[in-house]
Amino acid sequence: MNKGFSETLPLLDFDRELGLVELLGGVNKNKLFDSLSNLLGMPFCICTSKGEPVIGSREANMKFRLPLRAEMETVGYLETPTEQVDKTRSAVTLIELLLHSGARYLMASTLHLHAVKEDYEKLQKQHLALMESEARYKDLAENLEQRVSEQVKTIESTQLQLYQAEKMASVGQLAAGVAHEINNPIGFIQSNLVTAQSYVNDFAGLAKQVETGVEVDTMQAYLKEKDIEFVLEDFQGLLNECIDGARRVSVIVKDLKGFSNVDRSEEEIIDLNEVIQGVCNISVREITKHAELKLNLANLPMTRCKPAHLGQVFLNMLLNAGKAIKEKGEITVNSSLEGDRIRICISDTGSGISEENLKRIFDPFFTTADVGGGTGLGLSVSRDIIKAHGGEIEVESTPEQGTSFSIILPIVS
Amino acid sequence: MADFDEEANRLVLKLVFYGPALSGKTTNLTRLHDLLQPELKGEMMVLETKNDRTLFFDMLPLGVTAPSGLLIKLKLFTVPGQVAHDSTRKAVLSRADGIVFVADSQRNQSINNAESFENLADNVNRVGLNIETLPLVVQFNKRDLPDVLTEAEIMARWSKMTWPVMFASALEGQGVIESFRELLTQVFQSTDSMIGLQKSHGLDQEQFVSAVLGEGVGHE
């Protein structure tokens, strides 16, 4: 960068008072001297107001002088030995025209330099500002990639937290139902086992009689007294009920386990019907308070997917359907094969969604539930999951008639 | 700032005609050149381009002598009004002792007037002067044209300001001297307070104004 401008050009004021020497600075003095000599036809001297000769030399005989004016002021004199008014006045006029022209040039050129300097400094400042801004952008560009990847990481981790939070919320809604579903079999298993214990005591009494070798009559009286025939039959029944109860608990636990951890979201090749079945199992208690649940599942090919994530979607749909039915209604889950895609349709005959809300139901944090009643993330997360599987989710709804969600997933082998 | 050269016994005052392009700054100066008859009147220096637009400045030098013998030179400058010449305007404005802001009265020029006045305020500030204390007269020129703002409209907008507002038709020579007289009054007061024109040089305000305008001392 050239900093030298102001240093090499000490700028004078353009409107400074100009002296004779300066004003005649641009004039060829020899030519002016020759020309004036011809005009005057006698020796002459042009000197400053202080008497210093500028053109011609001052001789002792130059007794006559006329002032030379520039800008109303006398800046010098024309001195001659004799007074020839016509000639000297003409010469003065000529010289004054030159002085005026000189002033015009000096003022304009100095002012021009001022303007150029000013513009140059402005440009320098702008240039500096541009360089700074360029450096900023360069810096930004260099760091952009890193910052984007940091942002992506933050977003991904936030999203995972949101998924987890949403999952916890829906699991929370299930908790009571699931607890009942587990408590119920455990309750009758307990009561059956207490009864079974008394039956074992009865058999123990019989065993003692056989050991001590009592009479057959006594033994028969004992069998009749204890109604062993009924006990045997009932005992069998109790055990069957216990086995069935334990199986029910184990199914629920298995379904819950398959569903419980979003982080553990490995891909598996599975039958989607099993996922639907599992979700229905753990949510049936919650959603069938007022509604009847109907499953209409077609045979589906195996497909590669993340069952834990899809389970979360189906659960969401089912819980929403359950909430939509306030008194009496029906929830239907259909699965069908459409070419190379699987369609799963979850419909309810509930209260439906208004046209206005329908536009926003997939927006994050949009909820019509009261504060604390829903995260507003269920459908948003569901849509993300379906998109991540390369699928689509559609909704149709008629207020007061019901809502139908369709999930279309590609078959991946 | 008034340039007082004690050795040469000379005071130079710089008065600048500022304003938007084509508002009549040069016309003001030409009329003053024709109308004023001060003690000393130099040749008007005009630097214009082929299409009559001021390129650098115009300059009219006037001079009066105080009773003390002090020569008071007044250099009247115009600036180029075109937006592009801002650096030139700023350079001309430096060390000004007074300003006539020549505005264009035509209705469609209000925005140009406002922008130019804002530019004046900026530049006054940039050259280290204070617009609050600098002698300044606002002249609404071109009163002879049709479709101009009425005086009432102009006053409604400008009377809140502290500066006197004058009306002129420079082309017809009306209001030009009045605007200049108003400026001279202010300039005398600020200069007097600085170097004591009255006290040290025996020149009072009325004498000063009359001498510059060429009305003869004591002329009412």
Q: Please compute the radius of gyration of chain B using only Cα atoms.
A: 17 Å
SSE order of chain B, as H and E? EEHEEEEHEHEHEHHH
Q: What's the overall geometry of chain A?
A: rod-shaped
Average pLDDT for all residues of chain B: 92
Helix tally of chain B equals: 7
Strand order of the largest sheet of chain A: 6-8-9-11-10
Oligomer: heterodimer
Number of strands of chain B: 9
Bin the strand percentage of chain B: 15-25%
**What is the radius of gyration of chain A?**
54 Å
First-to-last CA distance of chain A: 67 Å
Shape of chain B: globular
Q: Which structural category fits the helices and strands of chain B? A: alpha/beta
Q: How large a portion of the residues of chain A is in β-strands, by DSSP E?
A: 15-25%
Main beta sheet strand tally, sense and closure of chain B: 9 strands, mixed
The helix content of chain A is 55-70%
Using CB atoms under 8 Å apart, which protein chain pair has the greatest interface? Answer: A-B, 20 and 30 residues
Topology, please?
The complex is a heterodimer of chains A (413) and B (220).
Chain A: H1 5-8, H2 20-23, H3 29-40, E1 45-48, E2 53-55, E3 64-70, E4 73-80, H4 85-212, H5 216-226, H6 228-260, E5 268-270, H7 272-287, E6 291-297, E7 303-305, H8 307-324, E8 329-338, E9 341-348, H9 355-358, H10 378-388, E10 392-398, E11 402-410
Helix pairs in contact in A: 4-5, 4-6, 4-7, 6-7, 7-8, 8-10
Chain B: E1 3-5, E2 10-18, H1 25-35, E3 40-41, E4 45-48, E5 54-65, E6 71-78, H2 86-93, E7 98-104, H3 110-126, E8 136-141, H4 151-158, E9 165-167, H5 176-195, H6 197-201, H7 205-213
Parallel strand pairs in B: 2-6, 2-7, 7-8, 8-9
Antiparallel strand pairs in B: 1-2, 3-5, 4-5, 5-6
Helix pairs in contact in B: 2-3, 5-7
